[in-house]
Amino acid sequence: MEPYDYLVVGAGSAGCVMASRLSEDSRKSVLLIEAGPSADYFWINTPAGMGPLFLNKRYNWAFTTETVPTLGGRTVYWPRGKTLGGSSSVNGMVYSRGHPMDYDHWASLGNEGWSYRDVLPYFRKSECNERGADAFFGGDGPLAVSDPVIRHPSTEDFVAAAVRNGIPEIRGLNAPPYEGVSYQQFTIRDGRRESAYTAFVKPVLHRRNLTVLTGVQVLRIVLRNGEATGVEVIQDGARRIIHAAREVILSAGALASPHLLMHSGIGDAGQLRKFGIQAARHLPGVGQNLQDHWFAPFLMRVTPDSSYNGHLVGWRKYVEGMRYLLTRRGYLAMGSSAVSAYVRSTPDQPQPDLQLAIRPMTSNFLPSGQVVVDPEPGMSGATVLVGPKSTGHMALKSADPLAAPAFHPNYLGDEDDIRRTLIGMRLFRRILATEPLSRRIVSELAPGPDAVTDDQLLDHLKQAGSTGWHQTSTCKMGGDEMAVVDPQLRVHGIGRLRVVDASVMPRITRGNTSAPTIMIAEKAADMIRKSPLPPWQAAPR
């Protein structure tokens, strides 16, 4: 079918949506290109498989940052999905839209059409929520959204303890009032992971105008006369060019999309010259504005009935495995932290900037990468700064497009990020010390009872803290000199080229980023279908 009308690079949360929606028009041909293998793997389809996938380099890019000065010189591991479904095939499956003010802020920056009122219909369009449809939720979209299959007594007690600390219990976190403590929802369908691939692409693979390629690495975008005309790829060990008649759409994610732009001559011209890359378009914002969520972990030893570790060790794990295989229920059908509280660090914050999450289990990774559940009863928790001010950047390390770039996240680079996270850590401890949750806690293992001062808590935050794996904003939309795409997600100064993924967010959303990324793609596909470009006249036939 070459040239394809649309080339979609990356089969992740955005790319799968783009390929599915654009191929709804049977007159347009769509090629979806994925560097990783197929997603036909037991642990991808099993919700509890996020642990075994964490270090699995077959399905995970397994990036590592450069040393981070603000963390005392640590490097940080960044898993990203490398398979059909992208990171939606390896993540914790939390369905979180963020806060309405996130999108109103995007619009206030000059991005017309991206206010919460504008984007809500696209959230609803994609969603098949088990609670049914209403003004805020969708009921017949491709993406299954469900409640946890188990409400463990420890999570119920966390809710009760949070309420006693002035945090209201609310029905859900994706509808008004957006602030309080509640059970989260997950992209899980009938006990199986619902990735962007299983929701949007797998059901429509029969379409004759949709082609999906796996194991194909895109090296660069082919440009001619200031327009994108295709991509250069490595397929079966050989380089070749695949042509696009209408548009090339980068949906490779916040780490790979800017990397591809740089290797295509789109980025900071001075930096590109250092690697022998001729600049096709000077866009200094490519790779800048990198944002992520950083969290402080908590680890508690608890009473035996307060953890489900015991169900996942020894002979009981085989019983639990059989339970899952026969019923698609049980602890293997669970996503990550089932319950969260979204709160403000101080009353003057305009919206929640902290997430407090808890999970009645603990585990460790062996040097081999195998995940092992702690044999002792444990509970883990986290204070997540969901409204960070710190921004970092990424840059080329090599002229080789197959070499990973350098990631400089600058976690905790803003003093206010530290101040607000410490407030959240102390609030989290107050909840742990409140009945009925407190009776379940035997001891705090981390940060530990000796960590009481700000400096001691900060040491824990730097040394043991971790990423939420929500990297965004490296190709931000807008009209200022650091913007990479316009509100239609078209790359400034380059025709027939869009970026559609989490990299276009001007500011990170206050929550997990998979659902907002799917929304971005829903909106982008709608814009493209409403105003399709004519075929490129010089496209080969």
Topology:
Elements: E1 4-9, H1 13-22, E2 30-33, H2 42-45, H3 50-53, E3 63-64, E4 77-78, E5 94-95, H4 100-108, H5 116-126, E6 127-129, E7 143-145, H6 153-164, E8 180-183, E9 185-186, E10 188-189, E11 192-193, H7 196-201, E12 210-213, E13 217-224, E14 227-235, E15 238-250, H8 256-263, E16 266-267, H9 269-273, E17 281-282, E18 294-302, H10 316-327, E19 339-343, E20 354-359, E21 363-365, E22 371-373, E23 378-385, E24 393-395, E25 406-408, H11 415-432, E26 441-446, H12 454-463, E27 466-467, E28 497-499, H13 514-530
Parallel strand pairs: 1-2, 1-15, 2-12, 6-7, 15-28, 16-17
Antiparallel strand pairs: 3-4, 5-9, 8-19, 10-11, 13-14, 14-15, 18-23, 18-26, 18-27, 19-20, 20-23, 21-22, 24-25
Helix pairs in contact: 1-13, 5-13
Top keywords for this entry?
alpha+beta, 7-stranded mixed sheet, 541 residues, globular
Give a verbal description of the structure.
The protein is α+β, with helices and mostly antiparallel strands. The protein is built from 13 helices and 28 strands. 23% of the residues lie in helices and 22% in strands. Strands 1, 2, 12, 13, 14, 15 and 28 form a 7-stranded mixed sheet that branches. Strands 8, 18, 19, 20, 23, 26 and 27 form a 7-stranded antiparallel sheet that branches. It has a two-stranded antiparallel sheet with strand order 3-4.
